[in-house]
Amino acid sequence: MALNVVGNEPSIEVTPLSVHIGAEIGGVDLTKPLPPEQVKDINAALVKWKVVFFRDQMLDHDGHRDFARQFGDLTPGHAVYGNVEGYPEIYAVAKHRKAKRYSGEANIRPWSGWHTDITAAINPPAASILRGDVVPPYGGDTQFTNLVAAYNGLSETLRGFLDGLRAVHRFAPPPGVEVLNGYADAQKSNTLVSEHPLIRVHPVSGERILFVSPSFLKSIVGMTPRESQTLVEFLWEHIVRPEYTVRFKWAPGSIAFWDNRSTSHLAPSDIFDTDFDRQFYRTTLVGDVPVGVDGKQSTLIEGAAILAA
Q: Where residue 176 sits, what CATH number does that domain have?
């Protein structure tokens, strides 16, 4: 059943997909400029449901960029790996980009692949908008998890302990993986290291977020290596509990718009077991500097903030 965002005259239709995260939005045409009330209500749905999905929206690069701009300033396509030629704000998410980036085998664990986009930056993106262009007939689903629900699912005692901790996020290759020269050079010239609160406060809703991106979080400040490893591995396993997640099946014209401050997501690996092609495109919105429960902002260790493209 569709639920409306605002009172008696809603501007959009919102259909929740699970208890804690994810909703489909209908009643909008993203190929045209949106009325202010629709922009407002989509933003409200995004904050509430953490990720929202649109169907049958046949956008090209120009339409994708123009839609995204209605919600904030856009970052460069990717802080390290660049952009689509002629579109500085768009990043191509191709099926074989990971295979081309790395050689060797990573240390595979249950949370491998889960991440929040570019948390190694001092101001990680506020949100990301992913568009399905070439979509396989089956497989290639994307999963998202609600980091607010994950925080609330911890005991009061553990929440109180975590509220005061900070952690180092670094953009680096996965452990045990040899990086090919071109990507190694890109990473060396675009190093990103930041210290963030382990629990950040959402700038709109005020909710507390378990800010533990598995791909970027490297250590917890003030702990021994073993203490840090044990705690972060517990938290990584906790955030991907099924009850906090939603799984989205793509189709041509599908768009996923997620709040990067309060979610992690998992890119599919099953597509490598098929001959199907898969080509998606992404834009990201410039983010704010995270703030902890104690009101203290994140600290930049190395690199620079992500500015508008």
A: 3.60.130.10
